[in-house]
Amino acid sequence: MIEKLGKQPISSLSRKELRTYFDYRLKNLLSEKRVLVRNELEYLFCETGPGNRRLDPEILSFLTNEKIFIFSGFEHTLKTLLNQKKEIEKYITQNCNSPEVQKLLTRLLKAYLDKLKVVSTKPFILEGFLGNVPVACLIQNNGWILPDKELFTFLSKYHKERRFPILIAKKISGILFPVFKGLFILGLNTYKIYLPKDAKILIDKATSNEPLLANLKYHNQFQFIDKNFSKECVEDYHQGDPIKNFFETILKNNISNYYENYLQSKIEIKDNFIDTVSQFKKNRANKALLKSYQTRATLIQDLAST
Prior knowledge:
The chain is α/β, with parallel strands linked by helices. 47% of the residues lie in helices and 18% in strands.
């Protein structure tokens, strides 16, 4: 199985092989981390390690419904740490897409976009202008953008409205970037969850007090924001922030060219992956892209049937 993964993507595994791989990875993670909650598990399985061995959260959801994972024999020793991690998990669930966080992210984007307005809170969609270019931003904070109907419905709608789509998420499924290239649109991986600043106290606290277990912290990546964050971002206090770099470096001087190519594209964006990508030029890369999607879809269907 490991030899197979060296040559093929993880979606090429059979249902049985994938479950064996999941059990193997989980055992190794727990031998080091000792206690994990669901959000951490998704981060470690889906965003770390070799690229060809990472799972989409959609696939991971079929492999386990558990919310807590504890290394055998450590239930009592790690009870305090577990409770701290559960508290963080609850906080993230309640706040990652809360009105407060959406307001803070909107404030941040107002530094770059004119006439910005929220048109949907679930999913979180903003419309505005970048210079003279009308744009629409789909934001998935603490979530992935996947090759699903919700995404392609969004893309189809704004293509008809001649509004340039910008996708911003903690992580965008890797299969989508060749699609975005073919459609002349842009996506940004932030690799972090944006949360109110008071979350930092909870996360800093979720670390074992035992010297030999000091690495048992909460595993994920965060950016803590408040109403001053957007101002500080513009004033260069947050040079490493991905949203800042995306709008100030990638888009600032190139948006007109991106928009022109987007409008001139002959591809009609449909509400699904297959019907959209099937219009791409028939070459080896695009045939492989369709095959990869179909392999992934077959695996998900197989997992869902059990």
